[in-house]
Every structure is written in C-alpha cells, then in structure tokens.
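Can you give me the bound-state structure? Components:
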Amino acid sequence: AQSVTQPDIHITVSEGASLELRCNYSYGATPYLFWYVQSPGQGLQLLLKYFSGDTLVQGIKGFEAEFKRSQSSFNLRKPSVHWSDAAEYFCAVHPQGAQKLVFGQGTRLTINP
Amino acid sequence: DAGVIQSPRHEVTEMGQEVTLRCKPISGHDYLFWYRQTMMRGLELLIYFNNNVPIDDSGMPEDRFSAKMPNASFSTLKIQPSEPRDSAVYFCASSLPTGELFFGEGSRLTVL
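Here's the bound-state model for the whole set.
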C-alpha cells in the first residue's frame, strides 16, 4: 500500500546536538517530497522540498534533507539544533499524477537545554 | 504577499449550533484544501478543490459537514449541527499543481 512513514513519534535531543528525523515512503515512482514544521498553536510551514535533481536539498532555518532513491527515504537533518526548533515535523509526499499530499504521522521534537 | 488567511482563529460554540469557517487562499493558487487536526487522529484531509470545483470530499466525516468555494478567493467549511467531537483545529491550505502546500494559521473550534 502507498504510505509515508515517520518511525519516530517523539525525539529528544540536547541543544547544540545534531538531529536526524527519518521519513520513508512507499510509492512506485519517485514522488515530490516535502518537510513541514508546526510550532505549537501555528499552522504548518514548509521547510524544504525535493522535486528532482540534486538529492541534497537545503531549506530554511538551517535544515537539509537527503533523498535516497534506493532506500525510499527523505531524512531531515540539522547539524546543531536550537531550543526554537522544538516543534512537530511532518514529512509529506506528492505522488506523481495525484493532486494531494500524503502526510506522515509526524515526529515531535523536544530540545533539552 | 499575504499568505492563506483563515477566520475566525478561535471559535467556541454550543452543541447544535452552526459553525462557519472561512478561508482566503493565496492569489493564483489553483488548489484549496481543508484539513482537520486532532491529537487522536492527527492531520486529516477533509476536502479539496481545483479551480473552485470540489474534487475529492471523501474525507468529510458526515453530512453535517459541507464546503463551498464560490470563487477563487474564498472558501467556507460549515458544520451544522456541531457536536463536541468536532472540536479540532481546522486548517485551510492552497497550492499550485506541484503540490507545495501553504497553510493558514488554523481555526481552533471548541464545541461545548
């Protein structure tokens, strides 16, 4: 079945530590890929997107993500997290030929001071 | 450039009352989506429009929910009658055909 999986429901890291949030998808063809962030009480904000080309994409707030076709993954990374990065992160895919995004369940990120 | 604008930001109502949520998409975006977010169910797609025409309403929970898009710059989501289980944050989002969604700030609905 077509799906988007974020294996980690909740991750806690210390401020200044590196971060990697996992995302795997199950679709026949490479879809468009997105990461969104949702701070408490806010809407979802686009962090970055992958359509084609360079498999390492840079986003806002110092985030990057790498598309790995062989692993059907699109993991989000940040070298050094800040307390303000505490939020919910959603991976989303836009299957080719479809018109609606499919969201993962989200990963809640907590930052320890 | 203004983003997606939703109103009201907060609504508290009593069971049985009619609720109308409003959305103004980003100008030039062909697609408009209504989502509902709860702790239990996460983010659910309710309905989406393309060029003001409803394309997929399979996520609308029941007949109490209806959505309209009378023109390219306005959409409504109506719940009549409302029930406590409808309490949630309702998001509107708009996009171009590439699928990149732009979300509004959401309307937090509490039904007592």
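A couple of observations. Chain B has a mean pLDDT of 94. The two ends of chain B are 37 Å apart (CA to CA).
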